[in-house]
TrEMBL record:
It comes from the Eukaryota. GO terms for cellular component: mitochondrial inner membrane. This is Mitochondrial glutamate carrier 1-like. Keywords: Membrane, Mitochondrion, Mitochondrion inner membrane, Repeat, Transmembrane, Transmembrane helix, Transport. GO terms for biological process: malate-aspartate shuttle. It is found in: Mitochondrion inner membrane. One of its GO terms (molecular function) is L-aspartate transmembrane transporter activity. It comes from Caenorhabditis tropicalis. The keyword Transferase does not apply. The keyword Transmembrane applies.
Amino acid sequence: MDVDELELLQEERDEQPIRYLPKVLNGGISGIVGVSCVFPMDLVKTRLQNQKGSATYNGISDCFKKSWEAGAPGRVNQIKGMYQGASVNIFLITPEKAIKLVANDFFRHALMKDQTERLSTPRGMLAGAAAGFCQVVITTPMELLKIRMQQSTENVKATKLIWNLLTKDGGIRALYKGLGPTMARDVSFSALYFPLFAYLDGLGPRKKDDSGDAVFWASFVSGLAAGASASFAVTPLDVVKTRIQTGSSNYTGILNAFYRILSEEGVKALFKGAICRMMVMAPLFGIAQTVYYVGLAEKLLGLEKGSRV
């Protein structure tokens, strides 16, 4: 690509406005579909990460089996038991995913150098980290409520849990317990995920419609691989976040939680639920990126899908 072509490409980028409504809708649709598919495994992950001392669950399959049986009697009750806490996730996943994906696009566009076809890896990591930072305003209370509901032995309603937190446990601050580790996890995850996805997606074959987009399966596989890799890397932060948000241990902060988990349970404890988390995040982001880049919302709104930045 010569200089004139690069200049034309930059002019087209500058002139083409970013449509945020379809991006928000794509983020919401992909989040709801993804959470609905993987939530039972997320429940298993939370319960594995939170156990210490004498193990209640002996691995993923044992935890899944015992969680399934705990919902008896009745198949409907067992299915409902595996989706304990899902209502909070499904309700808040739309703004959470919308913020993450839209913010990443915004920062990637803002950090794009003049006459540059591809965003550099450091700038891509910075854009991803900024997106992760923005999403914690939704993610922290969503994760706290979900975890409390997943760990509850009763079918507690989200509204009652929120009311108790606001009136008995410290008000708004109680909803943001675990903000530090949530921010550390999500900033690190996004800083790893988005540049890795962009790199892998760029290696895939392109569509034949001159859009420059990767074919369907390439975006899906890239989302799977990037989601699995980034989620494994930040598992220790996710374990710390889960322990702090359950409220079952009196950790005073991230460093205190790391130290106590290491000294009392060993390094392996920081990677509890790692495989489970990968099984959750890989398909979640595979679905999310596929819906997002296929442009489902644009099709529903009757808009032409623009090139992405």
